[in-house]
Amino acid sequence: MTPRARLGILVGLLLASETLYVALARSNAINGVRPVLTFLVVMTGLFLLATASFLLVRAGPDEGRVVWWLVAGGAVLFRLTLLPAGLPHDARLAELLAHLRADLRGERVAYERFLLYDTDLWRYLWDGHAWAHGVNPFVYPPIAEAVDRLADPDDPITSDGRYVWPDIRDNINHPDVPTIYPPLAQVAFRAAHAIAPGSVLAWKGLLVVVDLVAGLLVALTLEALGRSRAWAILYLWNPLVVKAFAGSGHLDALAAAALAAVAYCVVKRRNRWAAASLALAVLAKLAPIVLAPLVGRRIGWRPMLLAGVLVAAGYAPFVGAGVGLFAGFKTFATQWQFNPGPYLLAERLAGLFVSDPQLGARALCGLAFLGFVVLLWRRDDGQAESLPEYGAWLLGVLLVLGPVVMPWYVTWVLPFAVVARQRVWVFFSALVCLAFLVMVDGIEREWVLGMEYGVFAALLLLERRRQLRGRSSSPFGTRAALSG
Fold first, then answer.
1. Domain residues of the chain, as ranges?
2. pTM summary value
Protein backbone atom coordinates (compact mmCIF):
# COMPACT_ATOMS: atom_id res chain seq x y z
CA MET A 1 0.00 0.00 0.00
CA THR A 2 1.34 3.41 -0.93
CA PRO A 3 1.72 6.08 1.77
CA ARG A 4 -0.92 8.20 0.04
CA ALA A 5 -3.43 5.35 -0.02
CA ARG A 6 -2.73 4.59 3.63
CA LEU A 7 -3.25 8.23 4.52
CA GLY A 8 -6.51 8.33 2.58
CA ILE A 9 -7.84 5.27 4.40
CA LEU A 10 -6.89 6.76 7.76
CA VAL A 11 -8.79 9.96 6.88
CA GLY A 12 -11.80 7.82 5.97
CA LEU A 13 -11.63 5.94 9.27
CA LEU A 14 -11.36 9.23 11.16
CA LEU A 15 -14.41 10.68 9.38
CA ALA A 16 -16.40 7.50 9.94
CA SER A 17 -15.50 7.58 13.63
CA GLU A 18 -16.48 11.23 13.89
CA THR A 19 -19.85 10.45 12.34
CA LEU A 20 -20.50 7.85 15.02
CA TYR A 21 -19.34 10.19 17.78
CA VAL A 22 -21.79 12.81 16.54
CA ALA A 23 -24.51 10.14 16.68
CA LEU A 24 -23.39 9.25 20.22
CA ALA A 25 -23.45 12.88 21.32
CA ARG A 26 -26.96 13.30 19.90
CA SER A 27 -28.31 10.00 21.23
CA ASN A 28 -31.23 9.91 23.64
CA ALA A 29 -29.63 8.04 26.54
CA ILE A 30 -32.76 6.77 28.27
CA ASN A 31 -33.78 3.38 29.61
CA GLY A 32 -35.20 0.88 27.17
CA VAL A 33 -34.11 -1.85 24.80
CA ARG A 34 -33.82 0.26 21.67
CA PRO A 35 -31.78 3.22 23.02
CA VAL A 36 -29.38 1.00 24.98
CA LEU A 37 -28.83 -1.39 22.08
CA THR A 38 -28.32 1.58 19.76
CA PHE A 39 -25.71 2.93 22.16
CA LEU A 40 -23.90 -0.43 22.22
CA VAL A 41 -24.02 -0.78 18.43
CA VAL A 42 -22.45 2.67 18.03
CA MET A 43 -19.77 1.83 20.60
CA THR A 44 -19.05 -1.44 18.80
CA GLY A 45 -18.64 0.42 15.52
CA LEU A 46 -16.25 2.86 17.16
CA PHE A 47 -14.14 0.05 18.62
CA LEU A 48 -13.92 -1.62 15.20
CA LEU A 49 -12.87 1.66 13.56
CA ALA A 50 -10.26 2.34 16.25
CA THR A 51 -8.88 -1.17 15.83
CA ALA A 52 -8.73 -0.79 12.05
CA SER A 53 -6.92 2.54 12.47
CA PHE A 54 -4.38 0.95 14.81
CA LEU A 55 -3.71 -1.94 12.43
CA LEU A 56 -3.38 0.43 9.49
CA VAL A 57 -0.87 2.72 11.19
CA ARG A 58 1.10 -0.12 12.75
CA ALA A 59 1.41 -1.96 9.44
CA GLY A 60 2.83 1.08 7.67
CA PRO A 61 6.53 1.35 6.77
CA ASP A 62 6.88 4.54 8.77
CA GLU A 63 5.03 6.82 11.16
CA GLY A 64 5.03 10.06 9.22
CA ARG A 65 4.30 13.41 10.76
CA VAL A 66 1.05 13.78 8.78
CA VAL A 67 -0.21 10.46 10.14
CA TRP A 68 0.38 11.58 13.69
CA TRP A 69 -1.22 14.95 13.12
CA LEU A 70 -4.30 13.00 11.99
CA VAL A 71 -4.17 10.72 15.02
CA ALA A 72 -3.80 13.67 17.39
CA GLY A 73 -6.43 15.69 15.54
CA GLY A 74 -8.87 12.79 15.71
CA ALA A 75 -8.26 12.36 19.43
CA VAL A 76 -9.04 16.03 20.06
CA LEU A 77 -12.00 16.11 17.67
CA PHE A 78 -13.69 13.05 19.15
CA ARG A 79 -13.48 14.49 22.65
CA LEU A 80 -14.75 17.92 21.64
CA THR A 81 -17.66 16.23 19.88
CA LEU A 82 -18.77 14.51 23.08
CA LEU A 83 -18.54 17.58 25.33
CA PRO A 84 -22.21 18.45 24.60
CA ALA A 85 -23.32 14.83 25.26
CA GLY A 86 -26.12 15.01 27.81
CA LEU A 87 -27.75 18.13 26.41
CA PRO A 88 -31.27 17.65 24.97
CA HIS A 89 -30.76 15.25 22.06
CA ASP A 90 -33.24 16.96 19.76
CA ALA A 91 -31.91 20.51 20.21
CA ARG A 92 -30.76 22.39 17.13
CA LEU A 93 -27.40 24.12 16.89
CA ALA A 94 -28.65 27.50 18.13
CA GLU A 95 -30.41 25.80 21.02
CA LEU A 96 -27.29 23.81 21.89
CA LEU A 97 -25.25 26.99 22.04
CA ALA A 98 -27.89 28.59 24.26
CA HIS A 99 -27.79 25.57 26.57
CA LEU A 100 -24.00 25.76 26.79
CA ARG A 101 -24.10 29.47 27.62
CA ALA A 102 -26.68 28.81 30.33
CA ASP A 103 -24.50 26.03 31.74
CA LEU A 104 -21.37 28.20 31.88
CA ARG A 105 -23.26 31.12 33.42
CA GLY A 106 -25.03 28.96 36.00
CA GLU A 107 -28.46 30.10 34.86
CA ARG A 108 -29.86 26.57 34.90
CA VAL A 109 -28.86 22.91 34.71
CA ALA A 110 -28.85 22.53 30.95
CA TYR A 111 -27.61 18.92 30.84
CA GLU A 112 -29.86 15.94 31.48
CA ARG A 113 -29.33 13.95 34.68
CA PHE A 114 -27.86 11.02 32.73
CA LEU A 115 -24.85 11.81 30.56
CA LEU A 116 -24.56 8.74 28.32
CA TYR A 117 -25.94 6.56 31.13
CA ASP A 118 -23.82 8.00 33.93
CA THR A 119 -24.62 10.38 36.79
CA ASP A 120 -21.45 10.56 38.93
CA LEU A 121 -20.58 14.01 37.61
CA TRP A 122 -23.20 15.75 39.77
CA ARG A 123 -21.43 14.67 42.95
CA TYR A 124 -18.20 16.16 41.60
CA LEU A 125 -19.83 19.54 41.07
CA TRP A 126 -21.40 19.44 44.52
CA ASP A 127 -18.14 18.51 46.28
CA GLY A 128 -16.36 21.40 44.59
CA HIS A 129 -19.16 23.74 45.65
CA ALA A 130 -19.10 22.45 49.22
CA TRP A 131 -15.34 22.78 49.68
CA ALA A 132 -15.33 26.23 48.09
CA HIS A 133 -17.65 27.36 50.89
CA GLY A 134 -15.76 25.80 53.77
CA VAL A 135 -17.70 22.54 54.03
CA ASN A 136 -15.69 19.34 54.33
CA PRO A 137 -17.27 16.92 51.80
CA PHE A 138 -15.94 13.96 53.83
CA VAL A 139 -18.12 15.01 56.78
CA TYR A 140 -21.51 15.88 55.35
CA PRO A 141 -23.39 13.93 52.68
CA PRO A 142 -25.30 16.12 50.21
CA ILE A 143 -28.64 15.27 51.82
CA ALA A 144 -27.61 16.50 55.28
CA GLU A 145 -29.61 19.40 56.70
CA ALA A 146 -26.33 21.05 57.73
CA VAL A 147 -25.61 21.80 54.07
CA ASP A 148 -29.08 22.97 53.05
CA ARG A 149 -27.72 26.49 52.74
CA LEU A 150 -25.46 25.34 49.90
CA ALA A 151 -28.56 24.64 47.83
CA ASP A 152 -30.38 27.87 48.75
CA PRO A 153 -30.59 30.03 45.60
CA ASP A 154 -31.37 33.08 47.75
CA ASP A 155 -28.25 32.82 49.88
CA PRO A 156 -25.96 35.63 48.64
CA ILE A 157 -22.80 33.76 49.62
CA THR A 158 -23.31 30.08 48.86
CA SER A 159 -25.37 30.48 45.70
CA ASP A 160 -22.46 32.16 43.85
CA GLY A 161 -25.12 34.17 42.06
CA ARG A 162 -26.23 30.95 40.38
CA TYR A 163 -29.46 29.00 40.55
CA VAL A 164 -28.29 25.50 39.68
CA TRP A 165 -27.44 24.05 43.08
CA PRO A 166 -30.87 22.69 44.09
CA ASP A 167 -31.10 20.76 40.81
CA ILE A 168 -27.49 19.57 41.03
CA ARG A 169 -28.18 18.33 44.55
CA ASP A 170 -31.27 16.46 43.37
CA ASN A 171 -29.27 14.77 40.59
CA ILE A 172 -26.69 13.21 42.95
CA ASN A 173 -26.79 9.45 43.35
CA HIS A 174 -26.36 8.02 46.87
CA PRO A 175 -26.89 11.47 48.44
CA ASP A 176 -26.89 9.96 51.92
CA VAL A 177 -23.23 8.87 51.67
CA PRO A 178 -20.31 11.27 52.29
CA THR A 179 -17.91 11.63 49.40
CA ILE A 180 -15.70 8.67 48.45
CA TYR A 181 -13.39 10.73 46.23
CA PRO A 182 -9.79 11.31 47.43
CA PRO A 183 -8.02 14.68 47.77
CA LEU A 184 -6.68 15.12 44.22
CA ALA A 185 -10.19 14.59 42.93
CA GLN A 186 -11.40 17.24 45.38
CA VAL A 187 -8.73 19.65 44.12
CA ALA A 188 -9.93 19.09 40.57
CA PHE A 189 -13.55 19.65 41.63
CA ARG A 190 -12.51 22.89 43.31
CA ALA A 191 -10.56 23.98 40.21
CA ALA A 192 -13.56 23.43 37.96
CA HIS A 193 -15.70 25.34 40.45
CA ALA A 194 -13.26 28.25 40.26
CA ILE A 195 -13.57 28.28 36.46
CA ALA A 196 -17.36 28.13 36.31
CA PRO A 197 -19.29 27.00 39.39
CA GLY A 198 -21.75 24.22 38.65
CA SER A 199 -20.78 24.00 34.98
CA VAL A 200 -20.81 20.54 33.39
CA LEU A 201 -18.98 21.88 30.34
CA ALA A 202 -16.18 23.41 32.42
CA TRP A 203 -15.66 20.15 34.30
CA LYS A 204 -15.65 18.00 31.17
CA GLY A 205 -13.34 20.44 29.41
CA LEU A 206 -10.85 20.17 32.27
CA LEU A 207 -10.98 16.38 32.05
CA VAL A 208 -10.37 16.42 28.30
CA VAL A 209 -7.13 18.33 28.83
CA VAL A 210 -6.00 15.83 31.49
CA ASP A 211 -7.04 12.90 29.29
CA LEU A 212 -5.07 14.17 26.31
CA VAL A 213 -2.01 14.59 28.54
CA ALA A 214 -2.40 10.92 29.47
CA GLY A 215 -2.48 9.97 25.79
CA LEU A 216 0.62 12.05 25.10
CA LEU A 217 2.50 10.38 27.95
CA VAL A 218 1.51 6.95 26.63
CA ALA A 219 2.95 7.85 23.21
CA LEU A 220 6.15 9.25 24.75
CA THR A 221 6.64 6.13 26.88
CA LEU A 222 6.23 3.88 23.84
CA GLU A 223 8.81 5.99 22.03
CA ALA A 224 11.21 5.84 24.98
CA LEU A 225 10.96 2.05 24.94
CA GLY A 226 11.56 1.87 21.20
CA ARG A 227 8.07 0.56 20.53
CA SER A 228 5.71 1.63 17.79
CA ARG A 229 3.70 4.71 18.71
CA ALA A 230 0.80 3.19 16.80
CA TRP A 231 -0.16 1.47 20.03
CA ALA A 232 -1.06 4.88 21.48
CA ILE A 233 -4.10 4.87 19.19
CA LEU A 234 -5.59 2.18 21.40
CA TYR A 235 -5.74 4.82 24.15
CA LEU A 236 -6.22 8.03 22.18
CA TRP A 237 -9.00 6.62 20.00
CA ASN A 238 -10.39 4.15 22.53
CA PRO A 239 -14.18 4.71 22.56
CA LEU A 240 -14.54 3.81 26.26
CA VAL A 241 -11.93 6.43 27.17
CA VAL A 242 -13.58 9.11 25.02
CA LYS A 243 -17.05 8.24 26.26
CA ALA A 244 -16.08 7.99 29.94
CA PHE A 245 -14.22 11.31 30.12
CA ALA A 246 -15.48 13.69 27.43
CA GLY A 247 -18.95 12.16 27.32
CA SER A 248 -19.77 11.31 30.92
CA GLY A 249 -17.17 13.36 32.81
CA HIS A 250 -15.69 10.64 35.00
CA LEU A 251 -12.83 11.80 37.19
CA ASP A 252 -10.83 8.63 36.41
CA ALA A 253 -8.98 10.68 33.79
CA LEU A 254 -6.94 12.02 36.70
CA ALA A 255 -5.82 8.52 37.66
CA ALA A 256 -5.14 7.54 34.06
CA ALA A 257 -2.92 10.59 33.52
CA ALA A 258 -1.06 10.07 36.80
CA LEU A 259 -0.46 6.40 36.01
CA ALA A 260 0.74 7.28 32.52
CA ALA A 261 3.17 9.67 34.19
CA VAL A 262 4.36 6.90 36.54
CA ALA A 263 5.20 4.66 33.58
CA TYR A 264 6.96 7.46 31.70
CA CYS A 265 9.01 8.64 34.68
CA VAL A 266 10.07 5.13 35.69
CA VAL A 267 11.15 4.29 32.14
CA LYS A 268 13.09 7.59 31.91
CA ARG A 269 14.67 6.97 35.36
CA ARG A 270 13.20 10.11 36.86
CA ASN A 271 12.66 8.54 40.24
CA ARG A 272 11.37 11.48 42.26
CA TRP A 273 8.90 12.39 39.56
CA ALA A 274 7.80 8.76 39.42
CA ALA A 275 7.17 8.81 43.17
CA ALA A 276 5.26 12.07 42.93
CA SER A 277 3.17 10.70 40.06
CA LEU A 278 2.32 7.59 42.04
CA ALA A 279 1.23 9.78 44.95
CA LEU A 280 -1.03 11.74 42.60
CA ALA A 281 -2.51 8.50 41.27
CA VAL A 282 -3.34 7.36 44.80
CA LEU A 283 -4.78 10.78 45.63
CA ALA A 284 -7.01 10.50 42.55
CA LYS A 285 -8.19 6.90 43.10
CA LEU A 286 -7.03 4.70 45.96
CA ALA A 287 -6.55 1.56 43.84
CA PRO A 288 -3.09 2.49 42.44
CA ILE A 289 -1.63 2.07 45.93
CA VAL A 290 -1.17 -1.62 45.01
CA LEU A 291 1.58 -0.52 42.62
CA ALA A 292 3.78 0.77 45.44
CA PRO A 293 5.90 -2.43 45.78
CA LEU A 294 6.53 -2.63 42.03
CA VAL A 295 7.43 1.04 41.73
CA GLY A 296 9.48 0.97 44.94
CA ARG A 297 11.56 -1.93 43.66
CA ARG A 298 12.51 0.17 40.61
CA ILE A 299 13.07 3.62 42.07
CA GLY A 300 14.19 2.78 45.59
CA TRP A 301 12.44 3.29 48.88
CA ARG A 302 13.85 6.74 49.57
CA PRO A 303 11.81 8.34 46.74
CA MET A 304 8.86 6.27 47.94
CA LEU A 305 9.03 8.16 51.23
CA LEU A 306 8.38 11.29 49.18
CA ALA A 307 5.27 9.60 47.77
CA GLY A 308 4.07 8.85 51.30
CA VAL A 309 4.65 12.43 52.41
CA LEU A 310 2.71 13.77 49.40
CA VAL A 311 -0.23 11.46 50.07
CA ALA A 312 -0.31 12.56 53.72
CA ALA A 313 -0.11 16.21 52.67
CA GLY A 314 -2.99 15.67 50.27
CA TYR A 315 -5.26 14.45 53.05
CA ALA A 316 -4.17 17.17 55.51
CA PRO A 317 -6.86 19.73 54.54
CA PHE A 318 -9.59 17.17 55.29
CA VAL A 319 -8.38 15.67 58.59
CA GLY A 320 -11.20 17.47 60.36
CA ALA A 321 -13.41 14.62 59.22
CA GLY A 322 -11.59 12.33 61.67
CA VAL A 323 -12.63 8.70 61.33
CA GLY A 324 -15.19 9.83 58.77
CA LEU A 325 -12.41 10.52 56.27
CA PHE A 326 -12.93 7.07 54.77
CA ALA A 327 -16.58 6.55 55.75
CA GLY A 328 -17.84 6.94 52.20
CA PHE A 329 -15.17 4.61 50.85
CA LYS A 330 -16.04 2.03 53.53
CA THR A 331 -19.67 2.10 52.43
CA PHE A 332 -18.58 1.66 48.82
CA ALA A 333 -16.18 -1.18 49.63
CA THR A 334 -18.56 -3.17 51.85
CA GLN A 335 -22.01 -2.60 50.37
CA TRP A 336 -21.82 -1.86 46.65
CA GLN A 337 -21.78 -4.50 43.97
CA PHE A 338 -21.99 -4.10 40.20
CA ASN A 339 -20.91 -6.10 37.15
CA PRO A 340 -18.90 -8.67 39.15
CA GLY A 341 -17.24 -11.63 37.47
CA PRO A 342 -15.04 -13.92 39.62
CA TYR A 343 -16.49 -12.20 42.70
CA LEU A 344 -19.97 -13.46 41.85
CA LEU A 345 -18.66 -17.02 41.47
CA ALA A 346 -16.87 -16.66 44.81
CA GLU A 347 -20.09 -15.44 46.40
CA ARG A 348 -21.99 -18.49 45.15
CA LEU A 349 -19.24 -20.78 46.40
CA ALA A 350 -19.06 -19.05 49.79
CA GLY A 351 -22.84 -19.34 50.14
CA LEU A 352 -22.46 -23.12 50.37
CA PHE A 353 -20.31 -22.85 53.50
CA VAL A 354 -20.90 -19.56 55.35
CA SER A 355 -23.90 -17.56 56.45
CA ASP A 356 -22.61 -14.31 54.93
CA PRO A 357 -21.78 -15.04 51.25
CA GLN A 358 -20.67 -11.46 50.53
CA LEU A 359 -18.14 -11.48 53.35
CA GLY A 360 -16.95 -14.91 52.25
CA ALA A 361 -16.59 -13.75 48.65
CA ARG A 362 -14.57 -10.72 49.68
CA ALA A 363 -12.31 -12.97 51.74
CA LEU A 364 -11.83 -15.44 48.87
CA CYS A 365 -11.13 -12.73 46.29
CA GLY A 366 -8.85 -10.93 48.71
CA LEU A 367 -6.83 -14.09 49.26
CA ALA A 368 -6.73 -14.75 45.52
CA PHE A 369 -5.39 -11.25 44.92
CA LEU A 370 -2.76 -11.60 47.64
CA GLY A 371 -1.66 -14.87 46.08
CA PHE A 372 -1.37 -13.16 42.72
CA VAL A 373 0.69 -10.36 44.28
CA VAL A 374 3.11 -12.91 45.73
CA LEU A 375 3.39 -14.69 42.37
CA LEU A 376 3.97 -11.42 40.56
CA TRP A 377 6.56 -10.28 43.09
CA ARG A 378 8.52 -13.51 42.69
CA ARG A 379 8.55 -13.18 38.90
CA ASP A 380 9.20 -9.45 38.80
CA ASP A 381 12.60 -8.72 37.28
CA GLY A 382 12.73 -5.24 38.80
CA GLN A 383 13.61 -3.59 35.48
CA ALA A 384 12.20 -0.14 34.69
CA GLU A 385 11.13 -1.29 31.23
CA SER A 386 8.93 -4.06 32.63
CA LEU A 387 6.86 -1.91 34.98
CA PRO A 388 4.01 -1.41 32.47
CA GLU A 389 3.74 -5.19 31.93
CA TYR A 390 3.59 -6.09 35.61
CA GLY A 391 1.62 -2.99 36.60
CA ALA A 392 -1.12 -3.63 34.04
CA TRP A 393 -1.59 -7.17 35.33
CA LEU A 394 -1.68 -6.03 38.94
CA LEU A 395 -4.26 -3.30 38.34
CA GLY A 396 -6.27 -5.50 35.99
CA VAL A 397 -6.51 -8.46 38.34
CA LEU A 398 -7.42 -6.15 41.23
CA LEU A 399 -10.22 -4.74 39.12
CA VAL A 400 -11.59 -8.05 37.81
CA LEU A 401 -11.61 -9.70 41.26
CA GLY A 402 -13.55 -6.83 42.80
CA PRO A 403 -17.29 -6.66 43.54
CA VAL A 404 -17.63 -3.40 41.61
CA VAL A 405 -16.38 -3.37 38.00
CA MET A 406 -17.59 -0.11 36.55
CA PRO A 407 -16.74 0.19 32.83
CA TRP A 408 -14.72 3.36 33.32
CA TYR A 409 -12.50 1.65 35.91
CA VAL A 410 -10.78 -0.13 33.02
CA THR A 411 -9.29 3.23 32.01
CA TRP A 412 -6.89 2.92 34.96
CA VAL A 413 -5.37 -0.17 33.37
CA LEU A 414 -5.15 1.11 29.81
CA PRO A 415 -2.07 3.43 30.03
CA PHE A 416 0.08 0.56 31.35
CA ALA A 417 -1.59 -2.05 29.13
CA VAL A 418 -1.12 -0.03 25.93
CA VAL A 419 2.54 0.66 26.69
CA ALA A 420 3.01 -3.05 27.48
CA ARG A 421 1.12 -3.90 24.27
CA GLN A 422 -1.31 -6.13 26.15
CA ARG A 423 -4.28 -6.63 23.87
CA VAL A 424 -6.32 -8.48 26.46
CA TRP A 425 -7.10 -5.34 28.47
CA VAL A 426 -7.91 -3.36 25.34
CA PHE A 427 -10.38 -6.11 24.41
CA PHE A 428 -11.79 -5.97 27.93
CA SER A 429 -12.38 -2.22 27.56
CA ALA A 430 -14.82 -3.16 24.80
CA LEU A 431 -16.35 -6.18 26.56
CA VAL A 432 -17.03 -4.24 29.76
CA CYS A 433 -19.44 -1.99 27.85
CA LEU A 434 -21.92 -4.89 28.05
CA ALA A 435 -22.48 -3.69 31.63
CA PHE A 436 -24.55 -0.83 30.21
CA LEU A 437 -27.28 -3.36 29.38
CA VAL A 438 -28.39 -2.85 32.97
CA MET A 439 -29.79 0.48 31.78
CA VAL A 440 -32.51 -1.31 29.79
CA ASP A 441 -34.61 -1.76 32.92
CA GLY A 442 -32.27 -1.56 35.90
CA ILE A 443 -31.81 -5.34 36.11
CA GLU A 444 -28.37 -6.92 35.97
CA ARG A 445 -28.63 -10.23 34.09
CA GLU A 446 -26.32 -13.13 34.77
CA TRP A 447 -26.21 -14.19 31.12
CA VAL A 448 -24.69 -10.81 30.30
CA LEU A 449 -22.05 -11.32 32.99
CA GLY A 450 -21.43 -14.80 31.62
CA MET A 451 -20.89 -13.43 28.13
CA GLU A 452 -18.63 -10.59 29.30
CA TYR A 453 -16.40 -12.64 31.54
CA GLY A 454 -16.63 -15.83 29.48
CA VAL A 455 -15.16 -14.10 26.43
CA PHE A 456 -12.59 -12.43 28.67
CA ALA A 457 -11.57 -15.81 30.10
CA ALA A 458 -11.25 -17.20 26.57
CA LEU A 459 -8.96 -14.30 25.67
CA LEU A 460 -6.81 -15.01 28.71
CA LEU A 461 -6.51 -18.67 27.69
CA LEU A 462 -5.54 -17.59 24.18
CA GLU A 463 -2.83 -15.36 25.57
CA ARG A 464 -1.65 -18.22 27.76
CA ARG A 465 -1.19 -20.34 24.65
CA ARG A 466 0.81 -17.54 23.06
CA GLN A 467 2.95 -17.43 26.20
CA LEU A 468 3.79 -21.10 25.91
CA ARG A 469 4.70 -20.69 22.26
CA GLY A 470 6.76 -17.57 22.91
CA ARG A 471 8.50 -18.99 26.00
CA SER A 472 8.14 -15.62 27.71
CA SER A 473 9.79 -15.01 31.06
CA SER A 474 7.41 -12.21 32.06
CA PRO A 475 4.11 -12.81 33.88
CA PHE A 476 1.51 -14.53 31.69
CA GLY A 477 3.64 -13.88 28.64
CA THR A 478 3.18 -10.15 28.65
CA ARG A 479 6.46 -9.24 27.07
CA ALA A 480 6.70 -11.84 24.33
CA ALA A 481 3.31 -13.42 23.94
CA LEU A 482 1.15 -10.34 24.32
CA SER A 483 3.25 -7.77 22.56
CA GLY A 484 2.38 -9.01 19.08
1. 3-84+204-322+326-477
2. 0.94
